[in-house]
Amino acid sequence: MRIHALSTGTVSIHPRQVQGEGRGLLRVRNTLRDSNWTELLPIYVWVIEHPEGLIVIDTGETARVNQPGYLSEQLRQHPRAHFQIEPEEEIGPLLRGVGLSPDDVRWVVLTHLHMDHDGGLAHFPKAEMLVSRAEYRAASGPFGKLLGYLPQHWPSWFAPRLVDFAPLPFGPFPASLPLTRAGDVLLVPTVGHSAGHLSVILQQEGHSIFFAGDTSYTQDLLLAGAIDGVTLKERAARQTMQRIQRYLRETPAVYLPSHDPQSAKRLEEGIVAVAAPPVA
Questions:
Q1: What are phi and psi of 75, to 5 degrees?
Q2: DSSP secondary-structure letter at 144?
Q3: Tens digit of pLDDT for each residue in 182-226?
Q4: 3-269 sits in which CATH class?
Q5: pTM of the full structure
Q6: Contacts of 161 (CB under 8 A, 6+ apart)
Q7: CB 60 within 8 A of CB 116
Q8: Which pLDDT tens digit goes with each residue over 126-161?
Q9: What is the signed CA dihedral for 190, 243, 10, 23, rounded to 10 degrees?
Q10: Where are the domains of the chain?
């Protein structure tokens, strides 16, 4: 089973978004007021060549993000991110570059609907899309644009399968949803970074791979329990981190956040995360 790490360009964000400061709305305000920028970070899309069909996790960003009129006037005047991406770096061309076709993708699983994760939706008109119901409601609701979502750029045909997690515990996660008939690919709720964030776990012999989305921006921040600067659900984000840390203690797993510069190397070399025991 081959797994590809494909980066749809790069992004620079505020350091206080990567690791928040303050509590509640103060945390978000501190992020918005941050005038500093990180180094360029990858925007990873993960592709699993599974026997039951191609699985794509997130769709990355689109090169149109830098075209006039794509972003709102508010976002242009007060940018939350700087993107560097060319048309050939979108997920469609990247897939073709590794010998795959977007038309052959069976499932596209969206960890969440922020613009750098759903910007490449248009490349997959034939795939079944999956996103959590809570995330879809937040993104398409009356406050979606204020929360940083861009539903106005979704393809007209975008009608995802909305995931409602069944009370089917998986390790420390109280609910899950098997994606494949073999049961080796599961979705688990990882709310915090966004209202309905989910992650994907691929179970392999001897270890698993945890496709983390934005549950943290790096593995080190996850292991340190450092919450980002954009979450409006700090308690939920902390609980999610604790569940992932417990999972990593109980199961050898390669942890892959979408913007961690070390993620692709950990995937290639099979480097599992080592989480410290909880403080008594």
A1: -70, -30
A2: T
A3: 999 999 999 999 999 999 999 998 899 999 999 999 999 999 999
A4: alpha beta
A5: 0.96
A6: 128, 129, 130, 131
A7: yes
A8: 999 999 999 999 999 988 887 889 999 999 999 999
A9: 80
A10: 3-269
